[in-house]
Structures are given as C-alpha cells and as structure tokens.
Amino acid sequence: MATAPAGVSTSARGVVSSKAELPKPQLSKRMLRLPWASRRRASTRRLVLVASSPTPPNISEKVVESIKKAEETCAEDAASGECAAAWDEVEELSAAASHARDKLKAKDPLEEYCKDNPETDECRTYED
Amino acid sequence: MATCAVYTTPSLHSCSITIPAKTSSGFHRRQVIVFTSKRITERGGRRTSEVSCSAEEAKTVVIGLAADSGCGKSTFMRRLTSVFGGAAEPPKGGNPDSNTLISDTTTVICLDDYHSLDRTGRKEKGVTALDPRANNFDLMFEQVKALKHGVAVDKPIYNHVTGLLDPPELIRPPKILVIEGLHPMFDPRVRQLLDFSIYLDISNEVKFAWKIQRDMAERGHSLESIKASIEARKPDFDAYIDPQKQHADAVIEVLPTQLIPGDNEGKVLRVRLIMKEGLQHFSPVYLFDEGSTISWIPCGRKLTCSYPGINFAYGPDTYYSNEVSVLEMDGQFDRLDELIYVESHLSNLSTKFYGEVTQQLLKHSDFPGSNNGTGLFQTIVGLKIRDLYEQIVAERAAAVAEAAKV
C-alpha cells in the first residue's frame, strides 16, 4: 500500500513490470519541504537550540548551585565518590534543564497543525 | 493453552510465578496455571532449548535502549514512536514531572524511575546514578516481567528536577514497551525479557561536543565544568554502562568524521550501525550484496553532493565475539535526492513503501541528526523494530490458532 510521503507531492506512475517492484513516485520539487536548505520559512526554529528559549529560573538556579558545590567538593578530594556524585548531579540537572527548555519552546499552532496535515492549503511550501 | 519461552540459563528452568503475600511494589498479579514444553532449534545451527511454559503468554514486546545521559535517547524515542504512528505524550492528568511517555501503541519507561537512592541518598553514599548500587534491579525485573505478561503495575517516579522519588503512577501494559535508561541490559534477568536491545555508543569527542552544545548557554557552565563532569563520571560509566554494548542486538556507534581532517566540531559525523547476525526476527540491513564487503561513495555522475560528501561502507565483522554486520555512513545529507538515492540502494530496510525512510526523516527534520547517519540509522532501527513487532505478533497469533485447533 503506497501512500504519498508527507510534504512531498508525488504522482504515482503505474509501473508495470514482471518483477513485483514498488512504484517509484515522481518527486515534484515544488512541493518539497527541505528545512535545512529552505530560506523561505523562518529559520530561527531550525537554529541550534542553545539560543532559542531560556531555562526556567528554578532549574537554572539549581544548575548553578550544583556546579558550585561540585567544584567545592572536588577541590577537597578529586578522586572520591562524593566528587563523582556531585558532578553526576550537575549532569542530571543539566539534562533536566535541557528537557525543560525543549518543553518551553514556543509551540506554534500553525506548525502543530501542519505537522498533521501538510497537504492543506495553509501548509504548502514552495521552493524556487 | 498459553505459551511463553524460557531460556537455557539454569536459574530459569522453572517457569512458576509465585504470588508473594505482600508486595510493596504494589502490582496486580494473576495466578499461574499451565506448564508444557517443546523444543525448538534456532536457525544457523545454534541450539537453544526453548521450554515453553507458564501462565499468561507474553503479550507485550519489550525493547531496551541504553545510552549515557545527553546521548540522544529522547530523540530516538520520538523517532521510534513516530514510526509506529502517533506522538508519545506524558500521561495526562498525572505527575507533570513523570518520565513516562505514552502513545497508542507504545509506552516508554525511563529506568531512572527504579533508582533505589534519591539524590540526597546518593550524595551521602558517594555513588553516582550509574552505579548499580543506586538502582533497584529486583523491582525493575518484577515490573517489566509483569508488564510483559499483560499485568498493570504501579511504577515509582523519579523526579529529575527535585531529585526525589515521587508516589507511583499506574502503567497499563502496552503493545510495545520500551525501557530506556542507563541499565536496561545490566541485570541478566531483565536482559532475558528484552525482545530487542539497542545501545547508543557515542565516542568521547562527540559526547564532549554534544554536551557543549547542550550546556554552554546555561548560566554557570563553562568548558571546564562540562569537561570535569564528563571526566568524573567516566570511571563508573566504563565499569557499568559501557559493557552493556556486548549484549545489545544493535549498536549505533557515533564517531568523529574521517572526511574532514582535524575536525573537532562534531557537526559531521561518522555513524556505524552494528547489527547482530542470527537473530530470530531481525535481518540486518545491507548494501548491494549481503555478507560481502562494500565501500560506496554515492556522489558522482548521477548524484552531486556538496562538501564533505557521503561515504558508505558495509561488511561482516566480529564484535565482542559476536557475528555482526556493520553498515557505516560518514558525512551528511544536504538534499532530498541524496536521501532518496541512498535509500533506494539499501536493502532489507523493512519499509512498507518506497521512500518511507526519507519520509520519516523529513517529518522530523528539526530533530538533531536528521541530516546525518544518526537520524538515518535511528529511523532504520525504528522500522526494523516495527517489523520485529509484527513478526512476533503474527507468530503468537499462529500459535494461538494452532492451540485452538488441537
């Protein structure tokens, strides 16, 4: 059962061959969404996440604190289990901060809609 | 008549499940009923005597995914759930800091929920989360086994923000259960429950580059603190997490590129998909001719690529004394036709239609790694898992039909 890939308009050519071959659709370049090459759509969303949305303040505070504590603990004894546990905590909080940032990324209602319905008129994209 | 499979390790020969008088883990169990046995010979001449037995049949397909923190597990999870259709969301109306993701077919459980020590406890004892002493493997085994057999469980929640263990949430058995975390393959009992296991092996240079990308914008972090954090966790990681890769059915290894000499930015990556041979429901992806050694540069007359181009390699190999096939991609995709061209030359992809891999990659083009081997191989593994799931379901249905006839 061949269905058209999302965001790509295909005219399925009926290829009749003796081997059971999957029909190769003709890709129309006009309808392609190539986000990494496209210049038409707002590219801020495609940039590295680092600059896009801030971490919620409480998690941010925790990360700063934990780094300070880890540096203190390791200044005393760099090879101890406490030092490793302290840096592990830093890692855990950094990961939590990064996930929080991802959640906070502004949810564009049009993007959400277009994710599920790329063939509708509002969601068509054009590439020259 | 219900069937399940038991493996040849001595400790697992008996197939009885006892109901303890009181379980603090709070799960709902049903009674054990039947015991039958038959022998099956594995293909490839390897004989494992599978004794089919016990009460409820295994209803859920369990997938294990292991990787260090910050190594792309969440991205992989999102790609995987998308292959099965639907987006995975945290359980509605529950703890907002829950780590669980639920979609129509799939439930993803984060193994951090089985920490036996919370953050304060670990600090007191001086152990990292990587240490097995900080994890309750007995509970993990019991609950994964229960879910595999179609029994709902009350799973604890580890809150990553507060570092405390929150009250449990109810997890209903799904069609596909994915357990992701640091130790899915560490405990041998849990390993036996897995139908398929994946390990994301990120090399040190790439890990460093990714963590810099993730953390540099964070107030308080500096290059030194990121480096110190990686270094401090390394001994525990090498001792407890890394050895799991020998048990994995598929390993996605991410290395710095060989196309750009002296590149340390980690933007162009060399990714290797190491697939175990001889597995029952998994046939490795190959290039051109299965079992031969191929080196392929698709860029040329038919396809124009921009710098640094794309290099592929495929061949058989041994990995920790297992027979494997390795498919390798170095470089990145710039355009759609490169993707389609590559996809049309790979075989055994388990796609349902031409261009499915490309479609999946395009659908999630904003995910990290969508233009290089990480995204490509994660998507391919996702499709392979879907194929594995369908095969297992078909087998079980056939077994039930057989039993009904008898």
Question: How would the blueprint of this fold be written?
Answer:
The complex is a heterodimer of chains A (128) and B (406).
Chain A: E1 10-11, E2 26-27, H1 57-76, H2 81-104, H3 109-116
Antiparallel strand pairs in A: 1-2
Helix pairs in contact in A: 1-2
Chain B: E1 5-6, E2 51-52, E3 61-66, H1 73-84, E4 101-102, E5 106-110, H2 119-125, H3 137-148, E6 153-158, E7 165-171, E8 176-181, H4 188-193, E9 196-202, H5 204-215, H6 223-241, E10 250-256, E11 269-276, E12 286-287, E13 294-296, E14 310-319, E15 322-331, H7 336-345, E16 346-347, H8 356-363, H9 373-405
Parallel strand pairs in B: 3-8, 3-9, 5-8, 9-10
Antiparallel strand pairs in B: 1-2, 4-5, 6-7, 10-11, 11-15, 12-16, 13-14, 14-15
Count of runs of 4 or more consecutive helical residues of chain B: 9
In whole angstroms, how far apart are the ends of chain B?
10 Å
Oligomeric status: heterodimer
Low-confidence stretches of chain A: 1-21, 27-32, 37-51
Helix content of chain A: 40-55%
> Could you give a short account of the major beta sheet of chain A?
2 strands, antiparallel
Amount of beta strand of chain A: under 5%
Structural category of chain B: alpha/beta
- The best one-word shape of chain B is globular
> Helix segment count of chain A?
3
Domain CP12 (chain A): 59-128
Disulfide bonds (chain A): 74-83, 114-123
Region (Disordered) (chain A): 1-24
Pfam family, one (chain A): CP12
Task: Provide keyphrases for this structure.
heterodimer; A: 128 residues; mainly alpha; two-stranded antiparallel sheet; disordered N terminus; B: 406 residues; alpha/beta; 10-stranded mixed β-sheet; 16 strands; globular
Task: Briefly summarize what is shown.
Chain B: Belongs to the phosphoribulokinase family. Chain A has 128 residues and is mainly alpha-helical. Chain A contains 3 helices and 2 strands, in the order E-E-H-H-H.
